[in-house]
Amino acid sequence: MLLYFAPMEGLTTSLFRRLHARSFPGADRYYAPFLAPDGQGRVKDSALRELAPEHNRDLHLVPQVLCNSAEAFLALSRELAAMGYGELNLNMGCPSATVVPKHKGAGMLLDLQSLDAFLDRVFSETPLRVSVKCRLGLESAEEFPAVLKLLNAYPLSELILHARDRKGLYQSTPDLDAFTLAFASSAAPLAYNGNILSPAHYSVVMSTIPKLDRIMIGRGAIANPALFRQLRGGEKLDAAELFGFLEELFSSYLASGLGEYHSLGRMKELWYYVNHMFPGAGRELKRINKARSAGEYRASVSALFSSGRFDADACFPGALPGIPR
Ligand SMILES: Cc1cc2nc3c(=O)[nH]c(=O)nc-3n(C[C@H](O)[C@H](O)[C@H](O)COP(=O)(O)O)c2cc1C
Fold first, then answer.
1. C-alpha 288: how far from its chain's center?
2. Whether residue 72 is found in the same domain as residue 181
3. What is the percent of the chain where pLDDT is above 70?
4. Count of domains for the chain
5. Which atom of ligand 1 is nearest to the CA of 89?
6. pLDDT tens digit string along 63-78?
7. How many Å apart are CA 6 and CA 193, to the nearest integer?
8. Is the CB of 217 under 6 A from ligand 1?
9. Which domain covers residue 190, as residue numbers?
10. Is residue 323 situated within a structural domain?
11. Inter-CA distances, 318 with 40, 43, 325, Å
12. Pick from 30, 107, 180, 186: CA 20 to 30 A from residue 285's CA?
């Protein structure tokens, strides 16, 4: 089974990825959060630095792009090829209201003729393998057969399907029936994504699609960084290793020059997910969220871990058929 860490803007930074790969081996690939190039394919230096091989040592990283201009895609793919990358993932799933109306992300599904022209140009000139991360549709999974017919006409290295429509954002129950249909007719190897939040969620998906051989996990692995290890038959997450991981990540952010305020911001975004591993610890978690300095933050994290509320079997909440939220 191939297990992928999903791209998570603001969360799976290069510092996070490197530390995660070292502390919790088990993910075969990490997908970088999207690059958003301008019309000429230029991205900020800071975004390219995040992809620099020296910041992503000892892990398999796949960069991702959010754009609908073939020129921009091609210019960026040449730059990434020069950096040593072999694959670029196209984001066709972002549901944001600031992205979709521009026909980017899931908005690429608004006009399949333009998408066809984009892919035609991209595949005839790119030096890289191209994979796609896509949703089932904008309003409904009924849109997907037409999308898949179009994608099947191109030599995608892989299709990662987030089994929701755009309307479902990150909340609706993933549609395993629609995914199963896609699995039967995708020309490219198909990876599953959506609400694999615990071993129980994984079992539901695997018993529905037994031949599935690749899975992408996002929020479940942010909340429980040992989830990949656990799915491979390893130990559950241990409170002491979680504490060590979070402290090392925080120290790394501080040492990177990000500053106290932004380092705290990064950690609090992470805690939005991690807090689910501490059921009933509302008071302690609120203290973390209110921390204004590194000292306050560390004291409140220590208090939380001393509370005895950690539960290795807890997970980020989310439904799948047979598993209520
Ligand atoms: C905070 C956040 C940031 C995300 N950033 C990206 C991104 O940069 N690119 C992308 O393709 N998907 C992004 N996603 C979507 C995830 O990669 C994934 O498809 C989604 O969370 C569903 O998988 P999960 O249920 O395993 O979390 C993001 C999701 C969240 C919640």
1. 24
2. yes
3. 100
4. 2
5. 11
6. 999 999 999 999 999 9
7. 8
8. yes
9. 2-231
10. no
11. 39, 34, 5
12. 30
